[in-house]
Amino acid sequence: TQLLEQSPQFLSIQEGENLTVYCNSSSVFSSLQWYRQEPGEGPVLLVTVVTGGEVKKLKRLTFQFGDARKDSSLHITAAQPGDTGLYLCAGAGGYSTLTFGKGTMLLVSP
Amino acid sequence: DAGVIQSPRHEVTEMGQEVTLRCKPISGHDYLFWYRQTMMRGLELLIYFNNNVPIDDSGMPEDRFSAKMPNASFSTLKIQPSEPRDSAVYFCASSASGAGTYTDTQYFGPGTRLTVL
What we know:
Chain A has about 110 residues and is mainly beta. Chain A has no helices and 11 strands.
């Protein structure tokens, strides 16, 4: 069974601060995705990383895939209240399906 | 274009009752997934279909759960009889192709919040 551990589980910060959340596994994934979920809604895909060592930027969000394709990180610069939500990582290792971590709940206060 | 549609959005029922959750995937998507989300266990895959055929139901908790996809535009997840431990948010998602080694996107519906008293 492939497991993804996310840390921290909960993060509360002030607007303008920087933060990093982590997604770790002992398994190798062919690709890894990050989703954001807002209250009362389903997860929405933010990015997919495929190559070991890959770095992708989405405005103030920077995503990195580990060299060994077992871990990933999400860094947010100058967080804003609109960044509040549950951030989920999901790994693709088996055909057609994703394994999700439990998520990091981020609260950004004005 | 309409996204994934789920109904009902909220369901409150009593233990022992039958519950049916419904999903309409995005038109043209060949894959449909049913997930369950709880605080303790996170987002868990229950079952998925490819071209209306169930491919992997190893995530279905027990025989009380069943899922069908009679056509490309409709799927149901049924719990009979329901128990309090089934209380969770149930999501349906669809994609154009399987996750596998491909960079595919799963589109999630808004979920059904189920409470079993």
